[in-house]
What we know:
- There is one protein chain.
- With 343 residues, the chain is mostly helical.
- The chain folds into two domains: 2-74, no CATH class; 88-342, MetI-like fold.
- 77% of the residues lie in helices and 0% in strands.
- α5 runs antiparallel to α6.
- The longest helix has 38 residues, at 194-231.
- It is globular, with a radius of gyration of 24 Å.
- The termini are close together.
- 30% of the residues are buried.
Amino acid sequence: MSIYLLRRLNLLIATSVLLLIVIFSISYQFPGERHYVLTGISDPTPQQLLEIDQDYALDKGIVRQFLAYSQQRLSGEFGISINSQQPVIDEMKLAIPASFELTSMAVLVALLFGIPLGVIAARSSNKMLQNAILAATLSGYSVPVFWLGITLSLWFGLQLNLLPINGRINLLYDIEPVTGLLLVDCLLSDASYKMAAFYDALRHLILPTLTLAVLPFTMVIRITRDAMITIMKQNYIKAAESRGLTSLQIIVRHALPNAVIPVVRTFGIMLGTIATYSIITEVIFAWPGMGSWLVSAIFQRDYTVIQGGILVTSIFIIFSTITIEVIHHMVNPSSRKEMYGAH
């Protein structure tokens, strides 16, 4: 296992270094003076120019410049936003929790509803119900996320006026950020209207969550169904049936824990796709997360935000993907057997 973890760590480091090389190379393609592109300072003083030269080794060779650039970025020094003239790291600290809250809620919804429906699709004797679930799954997988988000906004936001379609909370509520997760901050607040603010934040979260949850939801149903069909044919399931266990006991105790394992691995594979869908969703619903922040920076040619946002988002996806893969190998005996057999 230690050799496997070492290989995953090497993969993480190698991928991160390659990512830094790409971003560093692209930074040379941005128009404008080099000091401006790296720091966002449009009119630096002579002292600032000297500091930038030293920090980024601009008077040295390309290798030294890359090492200095990597050191600055990995230490959290992303410069200031060209548009707002605020430190990029400060803006990032506001955007990351918003994206995390939306994505985690979407994944939670996908798991809570997708796994039971996958089990029903696999075990139900009602062919009409099975076909209905599979048809809904195929439809949800095929629907473009931008079309779904706009349609939900038109139906539930504009026509029916049931749910808000932009932002995280009504501007009338002043909730002091503590964790950055608005639902949690509302509950931690000492304001007299904290429960009203909590419900308002929850209502703002419904439409973007539903939009983002559709893809993982359909994938969870399909993978859970396929896994359940395969697992229910295994000998240990037949042994459990011979001991007189009920179908519910067999599913909950023996089949479902094994059926969830491929679901975990699929989420690791899908993280990049989910991140892409999250960007689109945030733009549609004006959700102040990393996605809408990056898209706004691209339109405004905010080069420091583009570099910092892409780097942090990409490293997070790489790290999370490898972490999920490691967890999958730890909880899946067959994967461990294949892993040790390969050595």
